[in-house]
């Protein structure tokens, strides 16, 4: 096994660890943001809940069921977004999510990796819209 393979193996193990022992798994009482999303291709799902304070994420939790990448990505993402502003999170792109999970799952599984981020972003947009009465 060369060095690159060894590092990739380590990252894969990290994914499996987050899948088997998800961090931030559960519900938030009186969450400000609550958004359920799913992948229509496979039915895997994520519900994201956030507590916000002054436009930044104070707490992030999730529940869900599905493949290792989708659930591990939610576990890792909820650990990363605490303290980030709603604006910065909505602006996050695919490459930033891939940096968080530290693997590139390839074109077929990219939707798995993006499910949690999309749910967070849609939830924040929905929350902001309702706050300012912006029509959807
Ligand atoms: Fe369904 Fe990964 S196979 S989200």
Count of the domains: 1
Strand residues, percent? 15-25%
Total number of helices: 5
CATH architecture annotation:
Alpha-Beta Complex
pLDDT averaged residue by residue: 94
Structural class: alpha+beta
Task: Throw out a few tags for this protein.
about 140 residues, alpha+beta, Sufe protein. Chain: A, three-stranded antiparallel sheet, 5 helices, 3 strands, about 50% helix, globular, binds FE2/S2 (inorganic) cluster
Account of the protein in words:
This protein is 52% helix and 18% strand. A hairpin with a 6-residue loop joins strand 1 (33-38) and strand 2 (45-53). The chain is globular, with a radius of gyration of 15 Å. The protein has helices spanning 3-20, 68-80, 86-90, 94-101, 106-132, and strands at 33-38, 45-53, 56-65. It has 136 residues and is α+β, with helices and mostly antiparallel strands. Bound molecules: FE2/S2 (inorganic) cluster. FE2/S2 (inorganic) cluster is lined by residues 39, 42, 44, 66-67, 69-70, 112, 115.
Compile the SSE list and pairings.
Layout: H1 3-20, E1 33-38, E2 45-53, E3 56-65, H2 68-80, H3 86-90, H4 94-101, H5 106-132
Antiparallel strand pairs: 1-2, 2-3
The protein binds FE2/S2 (inorganic) cluster.
What is shown here, in short?
The chain is of the alpha+beta class and 136 residues long. The chain has helices spanning 3-20, 68-80, 86-90, 94-101, 106-132; strands spanning 33-38, 45-53, 56-65. It contains five helices and three strands; from the N terminus they run αβββαααα.
